[in-house]
Amino acid sequence: MLVQKLRLQRGWSQEQLAAVSGLSVRTIQRIERGNSASLESAKALASVFEIDLSQLQEVDMPAPASNADEAAEALAFAHVRKVKRFYLHAVQYATVIGALFAINLLTNPRYVWAVWPALGWGVGLALHGLSVFDKIPFFNAEWEKREAEKFLGRKL
What we know:
This protein is an all-alpha fold. It has helices at 2-9, 14-21, 25-32, 39-49, 53-60, 67-107, 115-132, 141-152. It starts with a helix and ends with a helix.
């Protein structure tokens, strides 16, 4: 979590941090998800962030006083990742559907078949967006809380 925080404070993407540190993007992703970094990876990251290796390792251990803050940050980062995945989904949709319409118009302009994948995928994209931005009244955070309480038989 600290690596992600330091990276975002500098305004870097995971790809930029990977390039500067000499690590792979996949390694950066794993470390940011909470997996432990190898000593070599930790040294490279400490060097890039210009901090002592012990500071990098100490802060990765959650302190009891900051558990609420860390939990809030983890939720915020998880939400940002969901929004990012939705935007990437939207870009993929626009690119692929645009290409399908171009192919359709070049090969058979009398019958517009590309509208069918556009509609099907478009419905999926719309549902994805509604769920990411909590516009669907079911399957959102409140629903999850109610279901967890129902399962536990008590309030959370």
